């Protein structure tokens, strides 16, 4: 376990002390992040088949956001964006999943530690990837508190006792110091215990099956198993809130609860559609954020770091391109608070290996309140001669296996070849199953969205739009090749050819 003394050493010593603005009492920060939690899957959003009383409490006593987005719907790029306050194409190699995290940009936990905060993390911080060879003294999410373990209610659920580790951190914190703690669940990342939801006597008829899947018992059961993992992590959030209450610190703590990307199912996680990069978010901030509000402003992953720094009275470094939404939290009304928060960008390059030649599949997208425009820059990298090796960058699952065996419209939606351009009316088609890019009536709209998107990406320094697109294809992959190749080989009937 980390000792009181160790809060004072390490990486913070290498940072110039940031300017801290005078204020009455600096707040604590508890950042709670699930691993692969899809949008809308919480009671606060009206979901009836996932039970999330702790998240619902944060939303009820704080602010529920309906438009939170990641710029890259995979674990390590999204988490790099959170830490650095930059979009994924602004963090160099960290744009690519399972790569390295450069130390070129300041991370908010280190900045807060240099300003006198005690920092720590439990569970999943930044990753997967390599942060050690680039000079980080520990995971950039904070000093590790990982010793406590607990019995998992289902196989596949991690035994990390997140809430107890958080309490260890609170007990080790020097008296009187504010804290910033990252509580990162490994749930609901796969693998799942098959049939856990059914065995828990949960009703599969209550599950809402997305429009891009056939309504099949196997898929309903798979979604219930996902729900069981979500509910496990939500219970740890509840215990963490109780620990703060018992210490009289809840009202002086900014509690933000979100995810890194969408659910680990086809056409969601790793895909540039609503269910891939549109995320849940609720924030509680005691008397500083009037409770019971629902806000429609667009919040992006890169906005968390500047928000936390402003709340702590620490000046944001010039490297952070996100902007604080503390003003939105402190507002008194629901709906739209800041009319300029009405656009988000998303993109990907290579997520995991498994495509022929390990080639990436570059995509960029722009999301407005009404439209999602998607540009696939290399659609022919889909191997038309072998449909089994199509757009396969999503976790293995019963749902994935079911779709791969069909080669029908549902297969096409998740794994088929993408057109160069896609356009979805998210008001009437929030699950993005009707591509209207081919309609002549939308020609000028698409041209405007494309120009706006690419102009913004150039301004943000995306190498793909500044003459260096090849940069992304040459980034070192730091993961196990067998991890990415297993599914492809198994479905080709070529087990063992690695």
Question: Can you put this structure into words, describing what you see?
Answer:
The protein has 498 residues and is α/β, with parallel strands linked by helices. The chain has 14 helices and 14 strands. The protein has helices at 53-61, 75-84, 108-114, 162-172, 196-199, 217-246, 274-277, 304-312, 326-330, 398-404, 409-415, 443-459, 470-473, 481-491, and strands at 28-34, 63-69, 99-100, 118-123, 129-130, 179-184, 253-259, 278-284, 293-295, 299-300, 344-348, 363-367, 371-376, 421-425. The strands form 3 sheets. Strands 1, 2, 4, 6, 7, 8, 9 and 10 form an 8-stranded mixed sheet that branches. It has a 4-stranded antiparallel sheet with strand order 11-12-13-14, covered by helices on one side. It has a two-stranded parallel ribbon with strand order 3-5. α4 packs parallel to α6. The longest helix has 30 residues, at 217-246. The model is unreliable at 1-6, 8-14 and 484-498 (pLDDT under 50).
Strand-residue fraction? Answer: 5-15%
- Please tally the β strands and state the result: 14
Main beta-sheet strand count, sense and barrel state:
8 strands, mixed
Q: Report the average pLDDT across residues.
A: 91
Distance between the ends:
39 Å
Shape: globular
Helix content: 25-40%
Decide which structural class fits the backbone.
alpha/beta
The sequence of SSEs as H and E is EHEHEHEEHEHHEHEEEHHEEEHHEHHH
Helical segment count: 14
Model regions low in confidence, pLDDT < 50 over at least 5 residues: 1-6, 8-14, 484-498
Radius of gyration: 22 Å
